[in-house]
Amino acid sequence: MKESIGFIGLGIMGSGMAQNLQKAGFDVHVWNRTASRMDPIVAEGAIPASDPADVASKSSIVTICVSNTQDVEDVLFGDRGIVEGAQPNTLIIDTSTISPQATIKMHSRLHELGLRMLDAPISGGSEGATNGTLSIMVGGEVSDVNRAMGVLSAMGRQITHVGSAGAGQMVKLVNQIVVVGTMQAISEGLLFAQKGGLDLNKTIEAIEHGAAGSWMLSHRGTQAIVRDFTPGFTIDLQQKDLRLVLEAADEMGLPLPSTSQIFQLYRSLQEKGLGQEGNHALIQALEHLSGVTIGSSK
Ligand code: NA7
Q1: pLDDT of 272-288, one tens digit each?
Q2: Model pTM above 0.85
Q3: Ligand 1, from 15, 19, 33, 73: best to mutate by most atoms within 8 Å of Cβ?
Q4: Is the CB of 65 under 6 A from ligand 1?
Q5: Distance from the alpha carbon of residue 190 to the mean position of ligand 1, in angstroms
Q6: Closest residue by Cα to residue 93 from 72, 115, 112, 119
Q7: Pick the catalytic residue: 23, 172, 202, 298?
Q8: Residue pLDDT, tens place only, 115-151
């Protein structure tokens, strides 16, 4: 018999991840708050559920991919939440990016109820979610990681058990510090190229396989130079993650000068109504400062 897996949250990331679970041969029970978002995957054979408790009652492992800390709290412990339907020993894999401190409390609360949890945030953008090539950073106990490996490897390529409860979320915040710092450097580099009259395609082609190469440059830099700001990851969610970073850094007393500044640049874009654009639209904040526009003739 096929193992039954639950999936809650079919957004930009979750929809591709759930599809990959299906392709890997699991029976996938899905629930999304906005019901119409279940239609495409149900048409491909997933089984729709009426609420998170319903998903949990039919699944030995339940994967969550929703927006923020309170949203994970809601699907776990809210009205008709997972804990209302879960059988003993159900493993909950939270792939959302949320507060590490709150995550540690969720692990304890679930353990007290006889349930298991891993925090397993993801990186690799919508492409990684669709292609099953995500990097997944996992916090929790080794026996639970071993139990989850079939599910995780259906969705990701690099699965790393980084430590105990909450450690996956902490590593994800490291990931976000590096991602936004890289995008800031890419933006400055591309505006420099634009102002200097360089061919932007040739510039990226020339440097992407050298020391300046990165996933962000090859994927989001190439999108930015044609002014395609379709989100693989929205500014609103990026900003949510930077808030988590800065809160955790504040608690540790750690200064993060560049990340703090980038947080403010993203805020300026949100204030311009660009929160639903991709995180590479950071370049637009620097365009406003410099008066240089990417893709223009000068
Ligand atoms: P999206 O595309 O904004 O999708 C967010 C999903 O989370 C979407 O399915 C939402 O349902 C769902 N959601 C949000 N809040 C809730 C609550 N309170 N209850 C139930 N469902 C909820 O985000 P991404 O897929 O890009 O990212 C998801 C996570 O992965 C996030 O933490 C990122 O940082 C990494 P909706 O369709 O709006 O009803």
Answers
A1: 999 999 999 999 999 99
A2: yes
A3: 33
A4: yes
A5: 31
A6: 119
A7: 172
A8: 999 999 999 989 999 999 999 999 999 999 999 999 9
